Amino acid sequence: MTKTYDLLVVGGGINGAGIARDAAGRGLSVLLVEQRDLASATSSSSTKLIHGGLRYLEHYEFRLVREALQEREVLLAAAPHIIWPLTFVLPHHRGLRPKWMLRAGLFLYDHLAKRKRLPGSRAVSFNGTPEGQPLKSDFAGGFSYSDCWVDDARLVVLNAQDAQARGADIRTRTRCASLVRHHDHWNAELIGPDGAPQSISAKSVVNAAGPWVTEMVENAGLGRKAAGLRLVKGSHIVVARIHDHDHCYIFQNGDGRIAFAIPYQQDYTLIGTTDVAYTGDPAQVKISDQETDYLLDLVNGYLAKPLGRKDVVWDYSGVRPLYDDKNDNASAVTRDYVFDLDTGDSGRSSAPILSIYGGKITTYRKLAEHAMQKLAPVLGNNAKDWTANAILPGGDMPDGDFDAFLAKAKSTYDWLPRALLYRLVRSYGTEISKIIGTATSLGDLGTEVAPNLYEAELHYLMANEWACCAEDVLWRRTKLGLGMQPDQVDAIEKWFAAQTRLDRAAQ
């Protein structure tokens, strides 16, 4: 007999995982399917910021900015291990936005939403200061303000974990091949990792397929009703660390855009992003030479020591699935989210499908909450909103104090190398105890499969975070892929292959 779920969520990015979590917490039976790995597309290709979007004020998107500013503190409390405050330094460029405009924008930024843990903006001088050290001498000062950093792919995984803990069924490497609507349910054909088809039923569907959202609308036989989708490519480059302090720079450009230069993984600086209209396969998106040169030229307008292509150690690109508001400028296309709820033809109520267009990682929780406010009444569910005060896995630290928890971990696991301990606490928070278990030495963690990557962590990622291969571990669950050598990557792949053989032998 085919199982019937209350809700089928198609797409394992941040919006899909957030909605699955919210729905499961309301007592609904939920199935989430993702055709590849969690966060394998847009949600692992962001600029890694939880921010209000200072430049969105220029496009009068006050509602979006206010909501995003409010969410900073909510998410900071929910996951203090993977989200933390970050100070932004905005050099004043005499030829671009005047000081009065920057002050006015920052005043709004400070006051559109309440702040508890994040300090307000202030004017800063670069004369003899660490902030001024990497900059050209003609930049005498500017402003600083606060937003937050986030490990984007891990945020997706934590939401999926919490959804599963609340009863959701999470299936990766599972593609929704077709959707057939009936009066009171949908039939979906799923193709699992082994290529075998499976049919399931669901009372409702959330289409959170990101860049593939219109493809899913067509799969559901509703192509004529599809809303406009605008694919915008955002690319980033990573270079060796350009400064010693822990602040981020926000650089203005003459075309009205901005770029961030953000401390990244201790030894690097992340620079991005671009905004380029995209029409290709979202799964094959790559940075272009023109984008690399654009980012280098932009930051070199500010840096005393210029960067060249030879300095780029890694790059990545993602496709933002934005709602098409018909703006000719890709940079000005709204980052707000739009819902398209279809309940059947006029006069005939049928099983609902909710398609998600746009959104940003900062507002994913509110997006999920608003989505369920639309869907829950249709499903006869009257549960209250609940995620605003809910902690994500690993975030249950006393008072949300990461530094205090880290200090305790250093005492508890004094045999762990400091760099490894810091990475594990940052990645897993209080869940580190599940990785360490009863271990009292590095030898107890099993084989060191690759530098600073032990079997105990790999077993945890397989059992708890849907990791299936080296790429899942090195570029989404961690960022250990930076600096990893081909033979070391191969060792991780061989380890996963061996686990698969052992699992088959045990069946």
Domain module count: 3
**Overall pLDDT:** 93
* Spans where pLDDT lies below 50 across 5 or more residues: none
State the separation between the terminal residues, measured CA to CA.
Answer: 24 Å
The assigned structural class equals alpha/beta
CATH top level of the largest domain is: Alpha Beta
- What count of helical segments does DSSP give? 13
CATH architecture classification name of the largest domain: 3-Layer(bba) Sandwich
**Which bin fits the share of residues in helices?**
25-40%
Radius of gyration: 23 Å
Secondary structure: number of strands: 22
- CATH homologous superfamily of the largest domain? FAD/NAD(P)-binding domain
What is the name of the CATH topology of the largest domain?
A: FAD/NAD(P)-binding domain
SSE map:
Layout: E1 4-5, E2 7-10, H1 14-25, E3 30-33, E4 49-50, H2 62-78, E5 83-91, H3 99-111, E6 122-125, E7 141-150, H4 152-165, E8 169-171, E9 175-181, E10 186-191, E11 197-202, E12 205-207, H5 213-219, E13 229-240, E14 248-252, E15 258-264, E16 268-272, E17 276-277, H6 289-300, E18 312-323, E19 337-342, E20 353-358, H7 364-378, H8 402-412, H9 418-428, H10 432-436, E21 448-450, E22 453-454, H11 455-464, H12 470-477, H13 486-506
Parallel strand pairs: 1-11, 2-3, 2-12, 3-8, 5-14, 12-20
Antiparallel strand pairs: 4-7, 5-7, 6-7, 9-10, 10-11, 13-16, 13-17, 13-18, 14-15, 15-16, 19-20, 21-22
